[in-house]
Amino acid sequence: MDTERLAHLPDRKRRELQHAVRILFEEFEDAQKTKLSDKARRGRILKLVLFGSYARGNWVEDRGSGYLSDYDLLVVVNDARFAEQYEAWEKAEERLLQELSLGGRLATPVNVIVHTLQDVNDQLAQGRPFFVDIARDGIVLHELAGFPFAEPKPLTIEEQHTEAARHFEHWFPRAAHRFRLAREAIKWGYEKEAAFDLHQATERLYHYVLLVLTLYSPKLHRLTRLRSQAESVDARLIPVWPRDTKFARWCFALLNRAYVDARYSPHYEITEPLRVSRRLQLLRGWSHDEAKSPVFCD
After folding, report:
1. Are residues 201 and 285 both part of a single domain?
2. For the domain that residue 271 is a member of, what is the CATH number?
């Protein structure tokens, strides 16, 4: 771990970060032990990089609003089989969330993205600003020798705007369509259907915001992670889904669960779909008015 480049972090933060890294390695190694074939046991973590606000030194801990910056970690593996859908990362995320809820050795949320070295280097060669930023400003916490990042090839401003416009044309109309479906379901009293459509509209809006502003969005449905990543890109998104009351947190948790539970759980209930719909309308309005071009253009 590059202790010199982590010198800007308080001792408590460095200990937390070391603990989070230890959990990632433990779960990865445990998953390897359960595999029968040699090929399935050849997974390696080539790099682990801290990026985002804790790497830059501008993290936020606002106890009043309830907003806390995440530790953003990029795990680079040697093969696609060990990337995002690998079981180790789901177990690691469960452990990290459990540790966070207990409030012992971990008091800061952890956001983990996993990519192969080939994928990261392809992204750098294509000039994807999100990865260029990590390669330039990220702090390497672990790396194996002989696996360097490719030299970034920055996109021109025109290329960034062209790609951002393409993402707008794909994602924003689809989010708006899901929002209309949700409003219609609310009107007719189909609350579970409304909850699922509200989830889908929110997911699409967060993907849209991330893709337009950074030309990257993780392939996932979990709104908690999408929200954290979007808010780390632009802090003006934080008030859209407030965390300052138990009720506000409960509403977002219900929305987050809707992807599965609104369709399959007989016990799922959402009694405030209109309130959630209003928050989503704020996100939709912000996305349309503010998320117009990549933040890396300037």
Report:
1. yes
2. 1.20.120.330
Same domain, 279 and 164: yes
Q: Which CATH number fits the domain that encloses residue 61?
A: 3.30.460
End-to-end Cα distance, the chain: 32
Average pLDDT of the chain is 89
- Find tokens 């950074």 and name the residue: 214
For position 294, what pLDDT does the model report? 53
- Tens of pLDDT, residue by residue over 151-202, are 998 888 899 889 999 999 999 999 999 999 999 998 898 999 999 999 999 9
Would the pLDDT of 296 be above 50?
no
Within 13 Å and on the Cβ side, how many CA atoms surround 28? Answer: 21
Classify each residue of 247-282 as buried b or exposed e, where b means 16 or more C-beta atoms within 10 Å of its C-beta: eeeebbebbbbbbebbeeeeebebeebeebbebbee
Q: Which among 143, 170, 187 is the end of a domain?
A: 143
Does one domain contain both 134 and 67?
yes
Say whether both 161 and 221 belong to one domain: yes
Q: What is the pTM of this model?
A: 0.88
Q: How many CA atoms lie within 13 A of 209 on its CB side?
A: 26
